[in-house]
Amino acid sequence: MQALAIMYHDVVENGDFESSGFSGEGAHVYKLRHQDFVRHLDAIAAATSAVSTVHKLEGRPVLLTFDDGGVSSHHPIADLLESRGWRGHFLITTDRIGTPGFLTEAQLRELDRRGHIVGSHSCSHPTRMAVLTRAELDREWRQSIARLSAVLGDAVKVASVPGGYYSREVAESAAEAGIEALFTSEPTARVAMLNGCRVLGRYVVQRGMEPRWSAGFAAGSPSYCWRQSALWKAKRVAKSLGGKTYLQLRQAILDRKA
Ligand SMILES: [Zn+2]
User: Fold this and answer.
1) 51-102 pLDDT per residue, tens
2) Considering the domain boundaries, does residue 104 fall inside one?
3) 192 alpha carbon to ligand 1 midpoint, in Å?
4) Cα(125) to centroid of ligand 1, in Å?
5) Distance, CA 14 to ligand 1 centroid (Å)?
6) Average pLDDT for residues 189-198, to the nearest whole number?
7) Do residues 61 and 1 make contact, with C-beta atoms less than 8 angstroms apart?
8) How much distance in Å is there from the Cα of 222 to the middle of ligand 1?
9) How far is the CA of 89 from the centre of ligand 1 (A)?
10) What pLDDT was estimated at residue 84?
11) What number of other Cβ atoms are within 10 A of residue 50's Cβ?
């Protein structure tokens, strides 16, 4: 099975990157301006009619995902998706619920009621998920799922891995906690199955990427999908030199960009 999942984060008004989600330039590079996000959605609409959710994986569906649980998930993101008849996947950092810049419990219930998928993005958003002990991983998944399930009054079975650090153990822990669909940050259309949990890769869209990237991912265009995959593999080599080295390098690159 294949799926074309695209990963977004916050969408902000007037370039106010502090207004939603995590702070700092490392987080801000993933946030899009409202007018740019609208252009990305227009490009997706022109490229495909297959926007769907994990509840309906038929053909090669396009899945729109939004990490972190910033308040912009509610407005404008959900409104903009609904105006096209689409629903999104909102993955929530549960320790941040109700804190400045993040969704409240009432907003989470509203997203759920409006037909969006609300899932876990861990409790604390560890920088390097894959280096946690199994006990720490279990706690991140179980407690975040328990919190969300209590808020929504329904079992939560969808999650995404924070920070892009994935390992088999991260997925095994998620599966054991009851997750049936886990989004990673690996740019691939392949859907893997692990202990009853679907593991779905995602293509990331960051600030500065033109709408044609979203369209390319949504159409499964090799020139876009493969290019991101090649870049990701090169980065993985850099990461293998040492997680700390990679994070410092990444931060240096991001700082220079800013
Ligand atoms: Zn995140």
Assistant:
1) 999 999 989 999 999 999 999 999 999 999 999 999 999 999 999 999 999 9
2) yes
3) 21
4) 6
5) 22
6) 96
7) no
8) 26
9) 13
10) 97
11) 17
Q: Are strands 89-92 and 62-68 parallel, antiparallel or unpaired?
A: parallel
Residue 87 falls within a domain, yes or no? yes
pTM of the entire predicted model: 0.91
- Ligand 1 centroid–CA 77 distance in Å is 16
256 within some domain: no
Compute the distance from residue 67 Cα to the ligand 1 centre, in Å: 5
> Ligand 1 centre from 68 Cα, in Å?
5
Average pLDDT over residues 118-134: 93
Provide the pLDDT for residue 230.
83
Per-residue confidence band for 258, with pLDDT thresholds at 50, 70 and 90: very low
258: in domain: no
Domain count, the chain: 1
Length of the chain: 258
Res 37 pLDDT > 80: yes
Cα 59-61-66 angle, rounded to 5 deg: 165
Q: Which single residue is written with the structure tokens 């990331």?
A: 204
Residue 256 C-alpha to ligand 1 middle, in angstroms?
22
Query: Could you tell me the distance, in angstroms and rounded to a whole number, from the CA of residue 81 to the centre of ligand 1?
Result: 20
List the CATH number of the domain containing 10: 3.20.20.370
Parent domain of 66: 4-221
C-alpha 216 – ligand 1 centre gap (Å): 23
* C-alpha dihedral, 159 to 161 to 166 to 171, nearest 10°: -20
DSSP H or E segment with residue 33: strand 32-33
For residue 235, is pLDDT > 90?
no
Assigned token pair, 255: 């700082």
